[in-house]
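Cast an eye over my tokenised protein here and flag anything odd:

===
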Amino acid sequence: MKMKRYLILLAAACLLQCSVFAQEKTDSTKDWKKMAFGEYAGGKKNKVYTSWGGDGPLLSFATSVKDNGVHVRNIPRFTFFVNIGTNFNYDFNKNFGIFTGLNIKNIGLITKANDSVKLKRRVYTLGVPLGFKIGDLRHGRLFFFAGGSYDLAFNYKEKQFLNGDKKHKFNEWFSDRTPLLMPSVFAGFRFQPGFGLKVQYYLNDFFNHDFQETVNGVATQPYKNLEAKMFFVTLSYDFGRINYHKDKYKHKHHYHAESNF
């Protein structure tokens, strides 16, 4: 009985402490939510500003996969991690601006040569986009963007499955199995409260046709006749950084925010 009372008192104390902590954090939490999901404060024109964001849930696949001219079944590949980035923006006015940045993406494809064999291949890339944006850049209600990007492929991973069981996998840094540099073009739009839709198409092949490896003493080129052009659709996200100030002599609440995207 005493143990039960102690547990009740401990639970009550924890609830009280959590309540106090939650009360102290209410204002800052509301401020962050207001910034991220309610307000879009554009940067000043003719001044560089940063915004944080990147590609969120990403659905990648090849427009067509062929091995020696024969079509190979291609299964869309869904990823959530790790797709992050930072953009550097410059707005000429409230409706037109340009941007660049650094973005990490996880892209790849899944192929099934037959009902028994399945291959999963992916690559992490570090991309530098260069694009423009048109629309409501001050309030962020809706604007469109487009441009190009150069991606550096820095990590390749491949998994092989036989009848649903994983038989082999390997991971290579700066692998020669894919091109080191992967150029692409993209387009999309951004809307409140900080999300958008983007499509991106890679101009070169996913595989390096000149790659060679030695298997059982025999030199082979596994990707020589394998064709796959990558394409992905992503629900991108982009929220601005914000500095929150309290000045009891001048303003009760004052926001100074850097623009999204």
